[in-house]
Predict the 3D structure of the following.
Amino acid sequence: MSRKALCAAVAIAAVAAPTAYAAVKDQGIDGAVSPTDAGTRTKPRNVTMTVTLTTPAPPAGKQFATDEAKISLPRGMRFNGSKFASCTAARLQDMGPSGCPAGSKVGSGSADAYALDGRIRQTLTVTAFNAAKGRKLLLLVRGTSPVQINSVIEATLKPTTSASYGYILDVKLPANLKSIAGAQPTLTKFVTRIRATKLVSGRKLGYVQSTSCPRGGWKFKADLRFTDGDTGVATDKVTCTR
């Protein structure tokens, strides 16, 4: 084959070859705040904040797990983790909740896992702990049947200058939640509810407090990346009153 013919063949093959593109999954997020009557900067109001993430189960013959997530949390909120006791991921992983200081537990929740075309379906418990003086949140994920699961998700909480959001929770899932016994479990639902309080000078201080009701309400956003290269984006808002 001449050099000219070879170049033409390579060009034709390049055009004909299928190209793999990352897709966007039908990701969902549902934010909830109670009460919805907002506090102020001088008179903040203790609130319970709940974030529910939903991800579609893989189609038949496919597997994927969540690799990382960035959860944008509303403006008009104050996180008081610096005033709560802190645990560490190592102690929580090795000793469980009993290894963490009293007062470091700040929330709870649940999760649903799906793997191997539905042959594995499992409900998990989620327990949230304060860490690094409020700069991190630890999520202990546990389950016993049909698979033994004991994993700690470490999330970093940091403020943002976004016009719509006040904080970002940067979550990276550990290896033992992305691959279990050769399967990649998809967390089709993940619920986290933060509702802790502590007494400070005779008053209850909430781990989360509302300080304002921004125009357009309290906004939530989820940006997820999965092990198959796909991404997922979803938004939600909670109507609040001033």
Notes: The helical segments are 3-16, 89-95, 175-178. The CA atoms of residues 76 and 212 lie 4 Å apart. The chain is about 10% helix and 50% strand.
